[in-house]
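Fold sample X.
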Amino acid sequence: MSELLMPKATAVWLVDNTALTFEQVAAFCGLHDLEVQGIADGEVAVGIRGLDPISNGQLTREEIERCEGDRKLRLSLNAPSTKVPQRTRRARYTPVSKRQDRPNAIAWLIKNYPELNDAQIGKLLGTTKSTITAVRERTHWNTPNISPQDPLLLGICSEQELLEELRKARRRQEREAKKAEREAARKAAAKLVAQEAAAPVPPETGAAPEAETGAAPEAANAAVPAPEPRPETTAETNAAIAPPAKSPFGDRPGENNES
């Protein structure tokens, strides 16, 4: 939301150049009614030169005329045609008298709040990552004389800023823990699927039902053909067909001559 530039100077111009009421001018400029009345009487804002809100684009002539016709109306600030660039946040400034205490504050934060990363510590104390790394790894040139001290007591940062960074660090840890759990569950599921795919399939075994068990021998017997009779040899066949040959010496005694 845009704000009015130089409210008192704008109020001086509106009082001198328009027929607006004190209440309308006060509501537009963010002043008290009596303060606007003091401007009109020459008791307030003495020596302040009026600022034309029409020339700087914060108010239009039509808007002034609209409110001059009805005392109940209030002026509306005109939206700027150009976007004012936002001021970027700069690094924290640490007074020269307290800069020598920053290594002690770094050591205190590293010891008591290990969840804070280097970027957060640098933001709180206005120091660089190389200095934080040197204190953490005990390679700082003044390591023997560094003793952890609370940065709040040293006046380098405020309690609200420290609590805000701690909340951010804990939320980051929670996100990382949930991500690790999801990754572990995914790996366990993939391992289980791989084990099931590699396991051999056991053969299907089991006794047949009783109804099928009784019918199986009969089906087996019906499937096996009956053995064919052994064919007789040629000699046996001829002996059965041909009559017995007569002896040239005649019939043997005791034999019956059937012929």
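Fold sample Y, listed below.
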Amino acid sequence: MSITNKITVKRAEIAVAVILALCSIALMIKSAENRITWNAEENMGAGFLPFYLSLGMLICTILTIIKFVLKRSPQSKDDSPFIDAVAFKFIAVTIISLVVLVLAIGYLGIYFSLIFFLAFYLRYFSEKSIAFITIFAITTPILTFLFFEWMLKIPLPQGVSEPLFYPVYDFMYGGFSFAVKMIFIILTVILPTVLVFLTTRFIK
């Protein structure tokens, strides 16, 4: 019997629910090491979003486990194979690439690691053009940076790439006007698209 036949829908449901519950608890404990409050006097704490998102995920997984134990969900009675061989291959690649992403974040930082992860993942799983993949892989980390570090003031791990962001921080917290900062954001977001277009247009 192959491994894909051993992984039934029933086993997969309870295994994923338990794993997600444990991960939720671990993330809540880790998030609680930082401030998880948000009030008018202070900005959102660094642990606020991770903590309460993890709490929501924990509640959902507990409900799933309860329904499984009581046999209230269709999946808890389903002994058919959860995935076929082809799907198992894609899942294995996804898990491995995510593990590599997590390990790379500790060294390269989240932004550069995300670029490589998105480029590989889209190239492997989609039929999008190289230009689209390049634009998406570069623009997404930029938008992530602007959302977390500029709007929410929540720093994300940067690893050895942290010194590269010092000039950006100087600009963010310097004495520039709001209009200048908005122009900078717009140019930063559209620049990858322009560069990729020029490259594909003039370089054969």
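Sample Y note: The first helix runs from residue 3 to 6.
Also: The chain has two domains: 1-83, 84-204.
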